[in-house]
Amino acid sequence: MALRLHACFRGLGAQAAARAWPAATQRASASITPWRTYTTPANGGNSQPPIRPGDPRYGGSSAHEGYRRYQEEAQRRNASGLLYVSAFVIFFLGSSYAAVPLYRLLCKTTGFMGTPKTEPTIRDAETLKPLEGHRKLRINFAGQVSTLLDWSFKPEQRQVSVVPGETALAFFKAYNNSDKPIVGIATYNVLPDQAAPYFNKIQCFCFDEQQLDPREEIDMPVFFFIDPEFADDPLMDDIDTITLSYTFFKASGR
């Protein structure tokens, strides 16, 4: 009898639990807060969730419209970045190409780094004439060629003597030792460096491409003078010898 009563009560308990389970499940579901991702700012204040494509705050009422606006904004950012990078590259390349001619212009105008001044200066007969009574200055000439250039190059005279304001003419001789035409280009400098601003060349062959045919020989003139202001510079008092030197290189790409 006791066993029958136990089984009866157990069956009644199972039926009651089955009837109560759905209601308990609904109450538990309602009490759980949906999961969200929030970004906690550094200052500890409240923060909104990050904007995602399709969010109404992105300007679109639908996921498709929001994603389209998201793509357009990304493309604008990429275009701006590409524009900045392109401008930097163009500026860098332009500066590289302009550096050499600007450096040459600086040297020719100021005599910087031992480069003779070749910029024309307006002078009349009174300002460009030999300074009588000034000591003679010895002008030495030197010539050499790059190992890649199959030429012979040397001055036809080793030195000349002039006074400030006196014009002088010197010649260099170049000879092509090879059996094919070669184009060369010359650079030059003046020693000592501090005398370079006063060394003025009226005519020369520097920085101009020179083509010599096989076994051809030519004379190259240099017409120059020492500026009369040389005599007024106390730093020039101990300078009696000036050297004009040329070096020929094979022209690039020729």
Automatic annotation (TrEMBL):
SUPFAM superfamilies: Ctag/Cox11 (SSF110111). The keyword Transmembrane helix applies. The keyword Transmembrane applies. One of its GO terms (cellular component) is mitochondrial inner membrane. It is found in: Mitochondrion inner membrane. The chain crosses the membrane at residues 82-103. HAMAP family: CtaG (MF_00155). This is Cytochrome c oxidase assembly protein cox11, mitochondrial. It comes from Coemansia aciculifera. The gene is COX11.
